[in-house]
User: What shape does this take?
Amino acid sequence: MKSHTDYLWFNTQHEHEYINITRDVDVIVKTSGIQEGFVLVSAMHITAAVYVNDAEAGLIADIEEWLETLAPFRSDYRHHRTGETNGDAHLKSLILHHEVIVPITEGKLDLGPWQQVYYAEFDGRRKKRVVVKAIGE
Ligand code: ZN
Assistant: This one.
């Protein structure tokens, strides 16, 4: 079994951003030389998420609005007693989850026709990273 690990770095301009990382993950998979296996894509932070869905601007705006409904910015989160102000970002990360696993088939990401891998940032303007670990043969 082979394994290959790489990292994607982000320093977003905005507090919230949705970044399509499908191509970057695909490049890492091709570099790994793995033909059959899996790739784990995992945000290394507690205020960001990685998910698989459509690369459609209206949907992304809907996701943002939906997350704001479920986990709105509020000043009275208990987490803010630590001096932080990002309680909503932690909750948004929990809703979308921090990682995905994508199959690798014949050396390529085996995604459905509309599936794209996204990095979602909820507490941006700082250095963040995602680990990409491919395993297989
Ligand atoms: Zn925090």
Remarks:
- The CA atoms of residues 17 and 124 lie 8 Å apart.
- Residues 79, 84, 86, 90 surround zinc ion (CB under 6 Å).
- The chain has a mean pLDDT of 98.
- The radius of gyration is 16 Å.
